[in-house]
Every structure is written in C-alpha cells, then in structure tokens.
Q: What sequence folds into this?
C-alpha cells in the first residue's frame, strides 16, 4: 500500500473510533511501515478533525522520520509491541467507556457474545499511569504476550492486529462485548460462552471479509463510506 493510502486509512480508523466514542480527545492508532518505522497520529492532533497532515512517521525510539509534528507521549506503547511482535502491523490504543468501567469495578471481561469470543482471556495491565517510557512499554508488551488485546487499569484498551482493518474490528468487538456484559450485570449474572462455543465462534468469525464488513458499517455511520 502506498504511504498516502496508509495515512488515509489510519485517519479513517481514528475518525470512526472517535465517532463511535471509543477514542476521545486522546488515544492513538498506528501502522507498521517497516521493521523499525511506524505511522501514528500526532500528540496534539484533534481526533474528531483528523487529517493526513496529523500523521507522522517515527522510528521505534520516537524520532520523527517524516512529518512536522511530535508523536504522542505514549509512543512507547506502540514501539515496544512492534519490537516484540513481528506479526503485529497495527495497534489501537483507545479510551472506551464500558471496558474501562469493568476494570474500575474489578471485573474481568468475559466473552458474552459471538464476536467477543475473538478476544477471550484478555489480561489486565495493573498500572494506571501513561505508557510513556520504554520500561512501561516493555512491561505492557510482556503482559500482552502473544494475545490480541490487553486492558489498562482504569485507563483504556490496547488491541493489535495484522492490519488496521482487523485491528479496528477487534477494538469494536471488545467494546461491544464489554457494553453487553456491563448491562447484563445490572440485572443478573451474564451468561458466558462455553469453550466449545468460543471455538466454533472463532472458526466462523475470524475472517478478513467479516472484519471488512465491520469496517464498512462504521465507515458508513461516520459518513466515510
């Protein structure tokens, strides 16, 4: 994919997540552009009015290699996952409400609907501080290990994927699952999917065309279709 196309797609992901109230005035998304390079939205960018001019390229030490602004202070969150995980080509760090409410209340996210099974067994990073140093980035990557998502205590979520479309869809699924779990907790004990249900759901739903379908749905809602 051409650099400008990568930037445009990254801008679309962030704008759609902001419209869906999963990214707020903070939050950042990135895509890998090389072994030690990534595109990411700048720290000062307005997420609800993001443009390609707000996307910068940096190396894994945070040095700007293309663009005219500074990366977000939490760039180590992205850099250290990319260092550790060669299979990861996109990362979303969001500040979603419902999954964050669950961490505040000390509740684990449980798979309670089909797409939520794609992110079962989500670990919790116990610190509430920003991931703004290499040491904290390394610690976060260590908690994530080979998984697809990690929740940050009272802070937000981190989701990784093979590309930005997959990563976007998984981020949406995580928050929708958390919303359903939270609401069910208001009236009783949520029914959690069984191991067999998780297995079958993953076999059925882990497909690029279904990730794209989710992307297209949110693009249309955001007026970007």
A:
């Amino acid at each position: 994919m051409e650099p400008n196309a990568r930037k445009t797609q990254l801008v679309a992901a962030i704008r759609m997540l902001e419209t869906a109230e999963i990214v707020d005035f903070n939050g950042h998304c990135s895509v890998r552009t090389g072994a030690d390079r990534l595109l990411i939205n700048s720290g000062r960018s307005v997420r609800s009015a993001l443009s390609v001019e707000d996307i910068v390229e940096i190396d894994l030490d945070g040095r700007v290699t293309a663009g005219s602004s500074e990366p977000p202070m939490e760039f180590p969150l992205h850099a250290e996952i990319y260092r550790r995980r060669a299979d990861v080509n996109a990362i979303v760090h969001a500040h979603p409400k419902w999954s964050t409410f669950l961490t505040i209340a000390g509740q684990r996210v449980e798979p309670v609907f089909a797409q939520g099974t794609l992110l079962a067994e989500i670990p919790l990073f116990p610190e509430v501080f920003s991931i703004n140093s290499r040491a904290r980035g390394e610690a976060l990557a260590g908690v994530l290990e080979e998984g697809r998502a990690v929740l940050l205590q009272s802070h937000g979520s981190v989701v990784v994927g093979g590309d930005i479309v997959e990563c976007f869809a998984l981020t949406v699924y995580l928050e929708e699952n958390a919303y359903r779990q939270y609401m069910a907790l208001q009236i009783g004990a949520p029914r959690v999917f069984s191991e067999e249900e998780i297995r079958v759901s993953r076999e059925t739903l882990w497909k690029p065309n279904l990730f794209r379908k989710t992307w297209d749905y949110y693009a249309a809602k955001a007026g970007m279709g």
